[in-house]
Fold this sequence. Notes:
mainly alpha; 72% helix; 0% strand
Amino acid sequence: MDESPPGDTRARILRTALDLFSAHGYQRTTLQEIADRLRLTKAAILYHFPSKQHILDDLIEPLLAGLERTVDTAGRLPPERARWAILEGWVDVLLTHRRPLGMLFHDIAMIARGPTYQRLIRISLHANEVVAGPDADRRGQVRAGQAIAMCSDPVLFFQHVPPETLRADILDGVRRLFDGPADPADPADPEAATTRAPRRAGRPRALSSGQVAAARRMHAAGSHSVEEIAASLGVSRATVYRHLSR
């Protein structure tokens, strides 16, 4: 018999369910298996969660709510600030909820049939609109979609990389997407001449506030040399030293 406080029992159920869903998949995990792992009865699980779907919803809600808050807050900012507020916030939310995100990815077929998928699509579309800006043409809208994908996919595929390092790598790549040269113009496309971004040769000379914070944390932790920090951020060692010395 479980004698933990009700709040603790609910949290234990969620943690155990996340472990089992991540290891075996949502569809292949039963409520009885969750109960057995916790040495509870199935009735005790159902007391806190009327169904397995309710457990999944509670696991995913912090991720979706975090993305919604990020997009809604950024949407009230001027366009350029809004873009980077969303992109940086998007990475932070996904890194914070890395395990539920991985669970969603492994059971994507199941999620595509439910309201969670539709909600995630709505959030992503809203994010794309804000990142692209109010006057974006087709190429600008495509680039916004690429930026959101760049902030999402690496979180899934590089789970062995420490969060601070991965965050810096992701945001550096996104900045290069917006600041680097556009694809060669298509002579048949009249928009091409107006959408090519100015070229920036070599490595960037400055770091964003987020990159500076990441560099300082990695340096303070002693987990990376200055050369490794510079490589992960795509800048020179002199740039890293300059920011660390401030």
